[in-house]
Amino acid sequence: MHPHIEDYALIGDEQTAALVGKDGSVDWLCLPRFDSPACFAALLGDEENGHWRLAPKGAGDCTRRSYRPGTLVLDTEWETDEGHIRITDFMPQRDKAPDLVRIVEGISGRVTVRGTLRLRFDYGNVVPWVRRCDGHRVAVAGPDAAWLRSEPEVHTWGESFGTHSEFTVEAGETVAFVLTWHPSHHHRPKLIDPHKALRHSIADWEAWADRCRYDGPHREAVLRSLLTLKALTYAPTGGMVAAPTTSLPEEIGGVRNWDYRYCWLRDSTMTLNALVRAGYLDEAEAWRDWLVRAAAGDPAKLQIMYGLAGERRLPEEELGWLDGFRGSSPVRTGNDAVRQLQLDVYGEVVDSLHLARRYGLRDKPHVWRLQLALLDFLQEAWREPDEGLWEVRGPRRHFVHSKVMAWVAVDRTVRALEDDPSLPGDLGRLRELRDTIHAEVCERGYDAERGTFTQYYGSTELDAATLLIPRVGFLPADDPRVIGTVDAVRDELAQDGFVRRYSTDRTTVDGLPGDEGAFLVCSFWLADALHMTGRTKEARELFERLCALRNDVGLLAEEYDPAAGHQLGNFPQAFSHIGLVTTALTLFGTGDAAEAG
Length: 597
What we know:
Radius of gyration: 25 Å
Largest sheet: 15 strands, antiparallel
Shape: elongated
Strand content: 15-25%
Number of strands: 28
Structural class: alpha+beta
Number of helices: 13
Helix content: 25-40%
């Protein structure tokens, strides 16, 4: 049976990541970057699309697994009739070439271990030529080459287009495997010592974890979320991918399958806020610098997402040879939402720059000019309909959240000019614009009969993004319109207490067939809103329930299916873990989110 999404654990080297199943199989790995073609794609197909399994011969899922505390080093253990073994999986921070290390250790008894490696480059589409060289196995196809070696060397053989091994380990014995990728036209990279690499990886992750200054309830969950966010950061540029996967479905068997291996501007404010408040100023500054580079250029051409280094072209295509996770097709790479107009991103970018100044991050001389250019464009563009925060593939509409975030962009610029009169800018004009946007949203985006803000002007539908209205400071939390909106969203969009983004039952607003699960970050937003409106006990109870949805190693996908009890969507999802960190800080840490101040 195909695993569930939550059956996987994450390992990575801050440039790419792999998913390891409870059965000891690495079913997803893109090399050399998060957005490169996968060499293990069984996650979206079957074993013939590439995987690497190491486990006791004849065994199924592991007995237990866990991360070493404060690290991304994964221990998976099996207790069998023969004995007890542990497999330690990790990806050391690379010098030049990426390495995947798997160390088999005997704990007790004498256990026979079976290994099967099927490399399939280009998302499971290309079977490489495999040969022996210097006692190693080397696989080559087109631009890709990968080397497999073991210490001590164990017997391997080729069969059914795979590389197989079988060996035994007793208590105290270890066998270490290293898989190394490099461009096929380059020489083999320098070999690493797997045991030394393990010690260094543990020390590096522990040192990073020790910088976490959150010390409230659920600290382990907060720290695991922060470690996950660090793992999803592309170290060379500071950009953070939304998730390391593509096409994990929002509905099993459905078509809502998207590529999330890119960097979204929508995450910027919350990411910056979470990192700084948790004590990670360097990472926050790197993210701010990535944001400024990506946003540079013509404000009219600001995109909602970019590649890891700020690339703008992310063409979407379907991979017909993959059946999809549990038959959920199509499998997509690239993302056509990159071409959408989403006015909320202007607010998110400007709010991020505002937060960076408040937190004392080193400013760049050109950043204020960029901010003014964005405001010049927004002065007229805010009146236009757009595709909105949720990247709907239906008609453009006047989404309330987009207008609120346009107000945020103007408000933060007004604040900066009031704080520092030496900055250039037309303060009077911007104050007038701020008031105009605010008045229109309150008039056209609010349903007075029902006492709630709606999804878009003239709509009867609701949108969980309106839960952010008090947090961004558009209205105070004790305003009856805010309280009514929080109550309406909870009543109409919640299922078993978990919140959907919007209804897919009575509307075609997103232009897509089918359904989706509860959106986890929206459920964290509800907890924040309940706390801000004076219902802290309910907020903390919801937070407890959300934390309980994490899998056995503390990871969250994008969505959750309350009926089936399984996670949905790309995994692990940065937005969900940002939500967890921010809500914990709001409920137990340093007070309300800074952007509301």
